[in-house]
Amino acid sequence: MQFFRRILDPARPTCLAWLLVIGGFGGFMSCRSNQQEVVPTTTGGAGGATTGGSGGRGGGAGGGAVGGAGGAAGTSSRGGNSGGSGGPSGGAGGTSTSASTGGVSGTGGTTALPDAGPDVAPDTAPSRGPTPATPGHNFPFPQNRQSSRCTYPTAYRNEDVQAAYAKWKSDNVTANGAKNYLRVQRPNEPGGNLATNSTVSEGIGYGMLIAVFMDDQNLFDNLWLYEQQCLDGKTGLMNWYLGPDGNVGTAADGTSGNGPATDADEDMAFALIMASKQWGGQGKLAKNYLDIAKETLTKIWNNEIYNYVDVRPGAWGDGSTINLSYFAPAYYKVFAKVDTDTNNGTNWTGVVDAMYKVLNASLTNGNANNGLVPAWCDSSGHPNGGAFGPGKTAPTNYQYDSCRTPFRIALDYCWNNDSRAQTYVALTSKFFSGIGAINIVDGYDLNGNPKEQFQNGAIQSSAFVGPAGVGAMSSATYQSFLDDAYGVLITESALVGGVYYDESWMVMSLQMMTGNFLDYYNTSN
Fold first, then answer.
1. Are 279 and 248 spatial neighbours (Cβ–Cβ below 8 Å)?
2. Which of 8, 18, 146, 460 has a CA-to-CA distance to 62 between 20 and 30 Å?
3. How confident is the model at residue 524 (pLDDT cuts 50, 70, 90)?
């Protein structure tokens, strides 16, 4: 498996490697950039500082061709050793507070070498949570709460998640055009249908999910406050497409940005519920998080659920316009616990059952063994290229919407042990593991034949690789594939589907793969 990491070659140690292993030993060191070897100078200095670096030795001896006095034994840090002795005949060494700089040179003595005793390998085990709660922060990052039912990448690192989050935030979060708040922009997305640096409500949903699990309350609050400036007048939900200036836009194909998008709204509602558990109260918002979540759920139910059973794509459509990547059964089970004021709790359970039937029915189109769902279908599972209405063609292959499906369904297995979820992700995991993580492309026909949309070469899409990897968490059978998918994500370069979209799925997938994308209502899962 390729984790795409630079590993220090023990046969050719760098200066940094020596410093970590030796800590601070007396005398000065020089490092040849080509040979990568440490050469003691000819005059011994004082012993090193008494506390070694992280994972290294403690203070070392006075070294050099003319030995100084041994420094005080260092206090070994994680996995470290105490400092060695000085030159056998060294004079008194000088003092130093630096672990790498010797003090005043000592006198006399014979040659002293760095401690030749056996090295203890630094403790490089990845850090693990759960981080204890602090006032106002019940689930600080990282949590690493692993489901007993699911498998996780070998030796995953929270630092990988933090690095991916920092990149996502730097590339996509902006105050420009955000009406004094913050928004998630689309800086470099292929296709050309939407304006550069525009915002879609989907991105606000992703941003709120990412922020709540990274314990970034300021970002979370400012994204929601921006959302509140962009509401559709009919539904009270966010308009799906805003230009860079924050005003409702029109796509190049003529589609208006007015009206909500269900996947965005349900992501935001779930994030608000998690915020009520993460931080409590209301932060910078006008009401507390849970009350806003309940209001949002009522709006979703009244506008985006058709006939009590089908998930509509927005405030339009019916049982013939189903996008299965919007189906989020793990969310709906949480909604059922929260949405009790309007007696919709039982109704959300009905949506779960009905939509699982649609999901299963969709796997009768040459895709029964691979789980590759059509982007648009009807409630009978038949692909529906007419879902967008006359004169427009809706995609019916496995594409940039469909690729999210294994992620959303895998949550329901890892969190809730739903056997229907396990059965579905077993199909996608078998298919994608057979291909190999580094060979996944950004589109497939339902029969499994590659149908790339933007990919032309080795650069991949995190939106395809990440959710496929999350689906594979459902069984230890796919450990190697899961490790490889994780390895693709942490390169931070699988962005052929666009910076905003792929980086968002890169971060959310890494959060899930490290036990940080959670249902705070049931942390024992």
1. no
2. 8
3. confident
Asked if 263 is an active-site residue, the reply is yes
300-344 tens-digit pLDDT: 999 999 999 999 999 999 999 999 999 999 999 999 999 987 667
SS3 461: strand
Query: What is the per-residue DSSP string for 196-222?
Result: TTBEEHHHHHHHHHHHHHTT-HHHHHH
Q: How many angstroms from the chain centroid is the CA of residue 477?
A: 23
pLDDT digits (tens, 9 = 90+) for 405-444: 999 999 999 999 999 999 999 999 999 999 999 999 999 9
Residues 6+ apart with CB under 8 A from 13: 21, 36, 37, 38
| 267 in active site | no
Rounded distance between C-alpha atoms, residue 262 and residue 312, angstroms:
7
Given 221, 227, 263, 339, the catalytic residue:
263
More confident residue, 329 or 17: 329
The dihedral of CA 154, 157, 160, 162: what is its sign? Answer: positive
Query: What does the pLDDT look like over 350-408, one tens digit per residue?
Result: 999 999 999 999 999 999 999 999 999 999 999 999 999 999 999 999 999 999 999 99
Give the span between the Cα atoms of 155 and 174, in whole angstroms: 33
CA atoms of 472 and 508, how far apart (whole Å) = 15
Residues near 421 by beta carbon (within 8 Å), at least 6 away in sequence: 329, 409, 410, 411, 412, 413, 474
**Active-site choice (160, 202, 418, 503):** 202
What is the distance between the alpha carbons of residues 381 and 103, in angstroms, rounded to a whole number? 77
